[in-house]
Amino acid sequence: AEAAIRDGRLSRLQLVRSLEFSTERPRMRCCQPPAARHCRRTATAALRPLLRSCTTKARLKASLNLPKTSFSLHAKVAETEPRLARQLAVDHYERQAAQRGGADAFVLHDGPPYANGDLHMGHFLNKALKDIINRAALLAGHRVHFRPGWDCHGLPIEMKAIQAGEAESLSPLALRARAAECAREAVAAQRESFVRWGVLGDWEAPYTTMAPEYEAAQLGVLQAMLRRGLLFRGERPVHWSPASRTALAEAELEYADRHVSTAAHVAFPLLEGPPAAAAAADFDPFDGGSALEGAAVVVWTTTPWTIPANQAVCVREDLTYAVVEASDVQPSQLPSEPALPAAAEVEERVRAQGEVVRAAKAALKEGRGSKAEVEAGVAALLRLKSELQSGKPELQPGDSPPNLNASPLPHGARLVVAASLVDALSEAVGTPLVVAATLPGAALIGRHCAHPLSARPVPVLHAEHVTDDAGTGLVHTAPGHGPEDFAVGVAHGLAAACPVDEKGCFTAATEEAAGFAGESVLDDGNEAVLTALREGGFLLAAARHEHRYPYDWRSKTPVIFRTTPQWFVRLGDLRGEALAALHAVEMRPPAGRARLEAFVRGRTEWCLSRQRSWGVPLPAFYHVETGEALLTEETVEHVASLVSTHGSDCWWRLSEAELLPPRMRHEAASWRKGGDTLDVWFDSGASWAAVLSPDRCPPADLYLEGSDQHRGWFQSSLLTYAGAGGGRGGGGGGAD
Known about the structure:
By secondary structure, the chain is an alpha+beta fold. It is 38% helix and 17% strand. A six-stranded mixed beta sheet has the order 12-10-11-8-7-16. Strand 5 (231-241) and strand 6 form a beta hairpin.
């Protein structure tokens, strides 16, 4: 038997089985002779050592004919899951890229998530959907191209980098170094989580908007738009965030539907003078002419703080206006003060606001929130606590007391208001008003009013945006604080006065604002203007008004319109190209097309400049004496070459002589470099030029993001693509 085993003719298992069979006790032992039983006992005793050697556990295990596998008997999740996740996310991607080099590529362009804070369910939904699509493309035989990216510039990262009390002392380079480190840490943490989720992608070479090669490509898009004459510098009213101290684009706003402002009715006394010559033929002096003597036009505004910047009062020439008289000597009575909330209700609001503050602090600690959110929450909590202690409602920033004493209306006082709004004005001022005469709006055009804060003459002008749907039918016009007002100012040569600084505080830029210098227009300054109007006898009514109002989507604080010199993209001619480029794009769901087209059609300009340090520099130079701006293809190309080598820090590190093109270095003493950065939506919107292949048309097969990106990344990608010439079949590429 041993010889047979050595020769391979017999296995030990077969031997064991044969021996076990041969040593079984027979059922009928009486049939076997004694000699046979003796021989069997002798053989069994002789073979027992061999049997023991063949039946050890190890030898029995080795004799089993089972498949060999390295799969562990135990899960060992802590060790196994990261390894398997990396195989799914990284190894599979690299393998398919190598093995399917000649296959048709499927390109899903990743919209860069913001490099700030931890991942949440929104990130998971986004990447899970993209992973499903990419793996389906793999099953269809494609070679998948999916390069993940991160948006690394912008205010939230900059605010996170600034520690309490250090904002003013940090140099731009020191701040940028801190912000870059914050972004790198966030990218590393988020990348690790994405890989752990097993999301297929090129995780070994992701793109970031702060990489030098990306920034240089972005400046290349700016150069292409400059070549087409789409960029210009001008003073325009732009959304301005006093909390962030920077201009904001429409995509950086969110609207609060229940914002509370102080709505004020303000009188502008008419100065003596004949009606406009153009309207004389249609004006009956016996009807309305004599009635205008000693009258005052009434405007209604939800931003009383803009009165110091007033330059005109606008009417509509085809509306009918009424001259009304106060019928008694009682002063105007505003609506009675609402009942104070019960203490229990205030306590509940304090408790709820405390929860809000705790959540904001936790979010800030985790890197998901901002310091401004915490400060705003704490301020609201302190106001509620003060209300609880005093028993009186505390005012919100920008509010005025509902019982603020207005100026008394003497008997016979004459006011001018749209004829359809006489009853509304009577209710607002709390005084019965009697119509003395009516006249067309054209009869008012050409007259002048006295500014209520200085008696400076301001003209009465026609404007198409004036309606009698609300207010008084006469519009207070401050070209420095609104786009419609600015358009009127341009048409009539009015000054775009803006006596407000970057902090949202009054300056002495106008005579009327000098007395409020240093006060916040959204807080004490607004109340101070109302007080001055009341003391001058021009405040007819003031009450709280709830309406929709824009907020800074980062700091969650109200914004204002402020006129400052900014760089813009002229979208008038570009809109048609952008919309034409959408014809070749399939939108799912189809309603998304109408949404995106509506956003594009609704824009006339794109404010590109931001007054921040953490971002891609807007490479403009300004003459030290005249302030003339210098931004040409040549200067942008030279700066882009430096950025591709040294990174965008070179704009702050190098001198003007090094940043200017070689042929202009001898003029370096006459120029200073600007401090603005590019809008972060321009950063991410230029990703098609920095990440995708310019030789492929379209450069991507799919953009997949949430519907909020119709006003964000989808729109900025489309506009930069069309602006660089892609919409005309030029360089660059497209986005599907």
